[in-house]
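$ ./design --mode recover --in tokens.txt
reading tokens...
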């Protein structure tokens, strides 16, 4: 019997399907859930962070679990169907215990700008496909292929821009609002089947993408600002987020459903105080 046959079906090992698994939060989550609760990882990524992707795969295998990379732009319905089919060939049906949507690709700018930062239709469609619609595409593909294990967990990721805003992130906020509604409605549809769908909100974390966008000097200012803003006096880490995802994948978190879980550490609590008393 092949390994894939041994893994197939309700009695075999469970899998985590992680979108954006090659770097940052997605990679940290893949490594954490391989440790606890001990899931094999099917990691979807666009191939931009080869070194960190290889480190993630090594860490998963060091934990005694399987790591299967799959390179694609995960934002389209066609990619979702192809990715789920590739996973099914490896893992067998009803094998996905955890699905994590950790891909990003938002445009920043202004809706009414006449300059290069204008949020035109193509940028709007692309951002919503990446940040929101793709969560539905992959959920639909998983259900259609009968890939969800009993009591599976589906998890989207949220930021603090639902409660406070930056002037050039209106499209990010709008797409994340759509994602929140998708999570709630999918929770209603999948809840009777025993599955749970939630949204995890956390603050700024240091990732390769962030380091790519900002200079070292800008990153230093960013960290200093978060040290003043966060009650804990520092930024959250991707490892902290990942460890909490392991908790959400466990039995003790089984009653969360349709929830936006605040893991921001009170990041925005002091904003008014900082503005008025700085």
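writing sequence...
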């Amino acid at each position: 019997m092949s390994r894939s046959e041994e893994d197939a079906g309700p009695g075999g090992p469970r899998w985590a399907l992680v979108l954006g698994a090659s770097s940052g939060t997605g990679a940290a989550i893949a490594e954490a859930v391989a440790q606890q609760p001990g899931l094999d990882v099917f990691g979807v990524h666009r191939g931009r962070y080869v070194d960190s992707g290889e480190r993630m795969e090594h860490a998963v295998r060091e934990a005694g679990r399987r790591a299967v990379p799959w390179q694609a732009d995960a934002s389209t319905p066609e990619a979702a169907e192809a990715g789920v089919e590739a996973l099914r060939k490896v893992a067998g049906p009803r094998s996905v215990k955890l699905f994590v949507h950790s891909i990003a690709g938002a445009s920043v700018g202004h809706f009414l700008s006449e300059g290069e930062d204008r949020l035109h239709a193509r940028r709007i469609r692309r951002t919503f496909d990446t940040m929101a619609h793709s969560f539905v595409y992959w959920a639909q593909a998983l259900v259609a292929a009968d890939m969800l294990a009993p009591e599976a967990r589906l998890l989207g990721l949220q930021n603090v821009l639902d409660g406070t805003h930056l002037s050039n992130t209106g499209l990010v906020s709008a797409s994340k609002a759509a994602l929140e509604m998708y999570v709630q409605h999918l929770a209603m549809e999948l809840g009777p089947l025993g599955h749970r769908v939630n949204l995890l909100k956390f603050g700024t974390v240091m990732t390769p993408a962030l380091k790519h966008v900002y200079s070292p000097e800008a990153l230093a200012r960013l960290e200093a600002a978060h040290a003043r803003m966060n009650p804990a006096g520092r930024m959250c880490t991707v490892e902290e987020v990942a460890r909490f995802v392991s908790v959400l994948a466990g039995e003790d978190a089984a009653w969360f459903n349709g929830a936006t879980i605040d893991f921001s550490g009170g990041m925005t609590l002091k904003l008014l105080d900082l503005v008025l008393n700085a």
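exit 0
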